[in-house]
Structure formats: structure tokens, C-alpha cells
Specification:
This protein has one domain. With about 260 residues, the chain is α+β, with helices and mostly antiparallel strands. It contains eight helices and ten strands. A hairpin with a 3-residue loop joins β3 (about 85-90) and β4 (about 90-95). It has helices spanning about 40-55, 55-60, 65-80, 110-115, 145-150, 155, 165-180, 250-260; strands at about 25, 60, 85-90, 90-95, 100, 120-125, 130-135, 185-195, 215-225, 235-245.
């Protein structure tokens, strides 16, 4: 099966010093927290397949995340109603690739996962001082798994990340605390991969993903949006995979310097 690739990245995060100091979060101009790119059709076909075949792996939600999931359902449908290429009807949505998806309001994250390219993760402050992952549709994980992280606070989610020390954890939690309605934030990461597959789950303690001499750059454009009613934060992940040789000479040299 041919890999699902984009022709280019919208941004080269390793070339932008604003993104270098973790968490590297910037204000998002406008409301562009969902995106449609040239890989929409094949990515969405894969999302449809994963949601149909392995829903227990790519979907998860705690009871306390239900209200936020329902709110997100309405927010995204309103957004798609004004997004070119989408046709929003009473009981279904036709995507830009021509596929019509029935609207199942009883399964909001499952439905939304078939409508947009982004993986959708809901983070909520549940009384412990940290935001907790209460629900998600995660079709394209990069070396992590929803079943292992669901219900964990931010520090628990990142406990195997070496750079996620106390000061960084404090800054990330502060970011989640201060996100304002109507003022989304964004960041972007990138790593060189050997395997271009989009669905690459991983568990803590498992062998690390082989990345030496990889021919692909995998990047995530991550956006953070405060939902106005529940106060939950949507952490949306748009995944790009490009061939290393598609980068400009300057970006390729910068990538080698960054040693990703």
C-alpha cells in the first residue's frame, strides 16, 4: 500500500526559533484551527477504515467527557457549515471528498472523527489541578496509545517524555489554564521517521520507534481551542508526512542541524 503523503509541510518548525523553546505555543491568527489539505481524501478513507475496524483502539471517552464531546460536535458542525467543500445537512454531512457521513449525535467523537483530518482530544480540569484527557478520536497516534493515556492528567500523559520536567510541566499546565474562548493557540512538532504509516500506536516500555536514516518527516500541527460552555480544551492534531527529499535545501540542512 502506498504511503499517504503531503507534497510539502505548511511550516518547518525546526527553522522557527519561536517554536524552539518548549512548549513553543503561539497565538493562532483567525479561527484556522481545522485544515483541509491535498491528502484529505486518502487520510479520511483511512480514518473511516480505522473507526470501523478498530473503534476500541482509536476511540475512547470517560463519562465526564460527554458534555464536552457534545459541545464539540455542535462547534465543529457550525464551523464546517462555512468551510468550502463541505455540505452540512440536518442528518448528514458531505465531505470535500464526496463521502456523506451520517450524523450520530449519540456518538459525537466517532462522527467527528469521520468529518475532519484532525485527531480530536478533549482535555478538562476535573478538580485535581491538572487537565485530564477525558475523550478522544485518535486515528493517527505517533508512538502513544489512547487506551493507556485516557483518564490521565498532563503529567501522567507525558511521564515517559524526558524533557517534560517540572518547569515545562508548569508552563504547559499554565497554558491550558489561560487559553481564552475565541483565541486559539498552535504549535508544531516534527521528527524523521523510517515508517510513513499514519497509525503508529505505542505503549510505555515498548521498544522505541526506529527513526535512524528515515526518509520521511512526520509533523503535527497542534491547535488548542477553549470550548465556551464546558470550558474544555480541544487539543486537535493535524498530521503531515512528507518525503525528506521534498524539503528545500535550506530546510533539509536545518533538519540535519536540529538532529531530528
Amino acid at each position: 500500500m502506498s504511503p499517504i503523503l503531503q507534497r510539502a509541510l505548511p511550516h518547518s518548525p525546526w527553522m522557527d526559533p519561536r517554536l524552539a523553546r518548549l512548549p513553543g505555543v503561539l497565538p493562532l491568527e483567525g479561527e484556522d484551527w481545522l485544515a483541509v489539505d491535498e491528502a484529505f481524501g486518502p487520510q479520511m478513507a483511512l480514518r473511516d477504515q480505522l473507526i470501523a475496524d478498530i473503534p476500541q483502539i482509536v476511540l475512547g471517552q470517560l463519562p465526564e467527557g460527554q458534555a464536552a464531546a457534545e459541545e464539540l460536535f455542535g462547534v465543529i458542525l457550525s464551523r464546517l457549515a462555512t468551510t468550502p467543500g463541505y455540505k452540512v445537512m440536518v442528518d448528514a454531512v458531505t465531505r470535500p471528498d464526496g463521502v456523506t457521513v451520517p450524523l450520530d449525535r449519540a456518538a459525537p467523537l466517532k462522527t467527528l472523527g469521520r468529518l475532519v483530518q484532525e485527531d480530536l482530544c478533549l482535555m478538562q480540569e476535573t478538580g485535581g489541578g491538572e487537565h485530564v484527557l477525558t475523550g478522544a478520536c485518535l486515528c493517527f497516534p505517533a508512538s502513544w496509545s489512547l487506551s493507556e493515556k485516557l483518564g490521565r492528567p498532563l503529567t501522567g500523559i507525558h511521564r515517559m517524555v524526558k524533557v517534560y520536567e517540572a518547569e515545562l510541566a508548569r508552563r504547559v499546565q499554565r497554558m491550558f489554564d489561560v487559553i481564552r474562548v475565541g483565541q486559539p493557540l498552535w504549535r508544531m512538532n516534527s521528527l524523521v521517521y523510517v515508517n510513513p504509516d499514519l497509525h503508529q500506536p505505542g505503549f510505555e516500555g515498548a521498544p522505541r520507534t526506529e527513526r535512524r536514516n528515515g526518509e520521511y518527516v512526520r509533523a503535527e500541527r497542534q491547535t488548542f481551542v477553549r470550548l465556551p460552555q464546558t470550558g474544555a480544551v480541544l487539543f486537535a492534531i493535524h498530521t503531515y508526512v512528507v518525503r525528506l527529499d521534498s524539503l528545500t535545501p535550506e530546510a533539509r540542512a536545518g533538519l540535519e542541524t536540529a538532529r531530528l
